[in-house]
Amino acid sequence: MTRKALVCSLAVGLVALKFANAHAAQVSDEVLVSDWMFTAQSGANMISFETPGAGEISVTLTAINLPPLLGFSSLEFGLDDSAGLKTGMIQGGRLFDLDTTTYDLAGPTKFDADIFGSLSGFVGLYNFTVTYEPKTVPLPTSAVSLLGGLGLLGAVRRRRATQ
Question: Could you give the CA distance from residue 101 to residue 151 in angstroms, rounded to a whole number?
Answer without folding.
Answer: 46
